[in-house]
Amino acid sequence: MNIDKKITDDLAANDVSFVTTVPCKQLAGVIEEIDQRDGIFHIPSNKEDEGMGLCAGAWMGGKRPAIIMQNTAIGVTINTLATLIQYYRMPLPMLISYRGELREPIACQVEMAVHTKALLAQLNIPTYHFHHQADVEEFDAILKYTFMCNKPVAILTDANFWGGYGDQ
Amino acid sequence: MIRSEILKEIAPILRDQLVVCNIGIPSQELHAIDDQSSNFYMLGTMGLASSIGLGLALSQPKPVITIDGDGSVLTNLGTLPTIANNVADNYILLIVDNGSYGSTGDQPTYAGQKTSLTKMAQAAGCERVIECQAEDTGRVLQEALDAKQMTIIVSKCESGNAKMPPITMDPVVIRDRFMKAVQA
């Protein structure tokens, strides 16, 4: 299964047409797939809170948005999640590269990994963790859930899910 | 001229447009001067007005005016390259540049010292960037609407705030009525 294509297909099938990204090596394939896909407007952000602002505007403009980012971004975006996305009750699927998990080669990434789920739990953000490739089967249902409840929802995707870091 | 005097002067222009207004006293002033369902008031999240406005402009055809401040743009400087590289000709970013953090006690910003937001917007790649004096804001804003070309306006004005009450409207109400105005 090509998980980059499956994720992009699910986004398109759920009418997600505005995607902002801050890159991560693990996410390179899905970002490239989204960039090439007709019907999805891809707008890279310089920082993840900026990206959430773009998504908020897009949603109020009638488009379904999504953000793709690394888990370190949870540290950057807590205020935005609380005072914009949650306060105004907006839907936001967050496809998150979960760095610092099993197979991680960079020790510093573990420092935010150990806080990631605790911070998401503190914010009452529904959180899913994709560890095996087969977990991607739930992505479609997670998107439907997100736009049903108008909440930010986190999908943590670790190195095991993506198949390792290659030569990094 | 201070910000609230500019807002009073441009209120008749803003009334018919989608407006995203910066956090704090700017939103309180606009709300008190001329509340409209087509105004999206930010109650939190300093710095993101220009990003919300851009996302909105890119997602639907109506003109969008973001009223931002120099301090808030400095907080989210990455917004300028993103705006420059994703041109939305229905987007106007009006930066009310009073050289101070108005909502927190008028502490000076760097934009009131050596830093030029006009030049930073130009260097970011924004093509239509107009710096004006406060008194000319209405004319420049109307010209930007008529030009139908993405415009960054840097309106240089004096520091100071009008005393207005906080916005007590529920955020979901602000957002819901705004979305209905977008769709109308």
Automatic annotation (TrEMBL), chain A:
Gene3D superfamilies: 3.40.50.970. Keywords: Decarboxylase, Lyase. Coiled coil: none annotated. GO terms for molecular function: carboxy-lyase activity. PANTHER family: SULFOPYRUVATE DECARBOXYLASE, SULFOPYRUVATE DECARBOXYLASE SUBUNIT ALPHA. This is Sulfopyruvate decarboxylase subunit alpha. It comes from Ruegeria meonggei.
Automatic annotation (TrEMBL), chain B:
NCBIfam families: sulfopy_beta. Residues 40-153 form the Thiamine pyrophosphate enzyme TPP-binding domain. SUPFAM superfamilies: Thiamin diphosphate-binding fold (THDP-binding). GO terms for molecular function: carboxy-lyase activity; thiamine pyrophosphate binding. GO terms for biological process: small molecule metabolic process. Gene3D superfamilies: 3.40.50.970. CDD domains: TPP_ComE (cd03372). Keywords: Decarboxylase, Lyase. This is Thiamine pyrophosphate enzyme TPP-binding domain-containing protein.
